[in-house]
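User: Hello, can you help with two protein structures?

Assistant: Certainly.
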Amino acid sequence: MNFNDIKNTILQHAEQYSGAAKILFTVESLIEEQQIIERLTYPVFMDLTIDFIEKKFQQLKFANLDSLLIDLRFAKGYLAKQISAKQLEDRRVIAWKLHDKLSNPAQYAQRLTIGLLYPSILDNQPDPSDQDTALGYILDYLSCINDELVILYYWKLYKNLSN
């Protein structure tokens, strides 16, 4: 399948949902049904996610791009065991302060990278009291920025299944 086939499939499946989040729900369902995260493994999923976000945010040229890239660098460093949970937390505090000064869509972008500064998300150790999964969180904020990002994100994950 090529990107246009994937996009058309998503748009067709999205018709079963109502409301603004129908692309998000469709992609989340497809990822879960196809067990994409399990097939990739969670560490590969996180690496692909961070790489995708980094590339797309650079293309979108958010005003807070430097901060976003620093957040992503910290997340990568944590996954590579070069950054401690404490360092991740310290960066998260700074990122939250920046977040509060932004407006959308830059604020959504900052919120997405803030989520990647939580060890529980990076380590796939969700808080039992949190109703959202890492995937749901990522898709939600990508969707807040632009639904096309959700489709492109699915495409990135999907095409890496065969690599």
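That covers the first. Now for the second protein you mentioned:
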Amino acid sequence: MTNETTIEPTDADADLSPTESNAADEIDDATRAKLLAAENRRLREAYARSRRSRYRKTAAALAVVGLLALALGALAPSVREVLITLGMTGVFAAAVTYFLTPGRFVSADVGDRIYAAHATNGAQIVDELGLRDDRLYLPDGDGRARLYVPSSSDPDLDSVADRRATTDGPFVLSEPRRGVLLESTGAPLLAEFEAGLPGELGATPTTIAAQLCDGLVEQFELAASADPDVDPAGGRVTVAVENTAFGSLDRFDHPIPAFLAVGLAVGLERPVRLEVAPGGERADWLVTCRFETRSG
């Protein structure tokens, strides 16, 4: 004879509906995303402090050498000219090392002009070939994604879940998926972004969107703000962007929307459809990435 114990669900368990459970999961995702963003900022600040400390130590060493040479020059008349020259050089090098940041900056205006040539060429190719206005970012299964612009004769545009950037491109000539498959400006940005992440790129829309927006503002400084609005169930991420570095976001393969679309395509491992529109009173621009949801 055996004793069987049956555990009945409590009232609290019964009260937790599937909708509330999903909401709790989303709250957890949002919390994790905020923690990841905070950790990214902390690591970047720590790295910046480390670099400043290293250069300040170098500046201090140069200053000591320079001052020592000046002091010896005052005590040794026979080599005074050489020591004073060496001392002044050391002091000057110390000042330059201390006050100038060890980085190279390209102005936003120069960057925008460089990108404008790419945007003009891409838009002209699309117009000349009579392609659609749709911009699809397809993962290649190897941690990258490329821009696919389909032909107007593509009959299966509403179902792109099985599409991958598996051909070499740039011209896709096989029916019915004719179009162009191009390297995106967002791909190298994502590679640089992932290299600086403390962990891996997220796997949920909420986490990925938070990471990418943080990268746009904090790491690349391509925008003053990027505020994500995520609807995982609806397969949508909309980012409100303000004060962009490279002008209008509705141009061909703009780095900011492309970075968001490529990041989501790679992180979610599914195609992403990109839409860009003026933000009205909400923001300067609204960047919307749509993707097919997966059940289970």
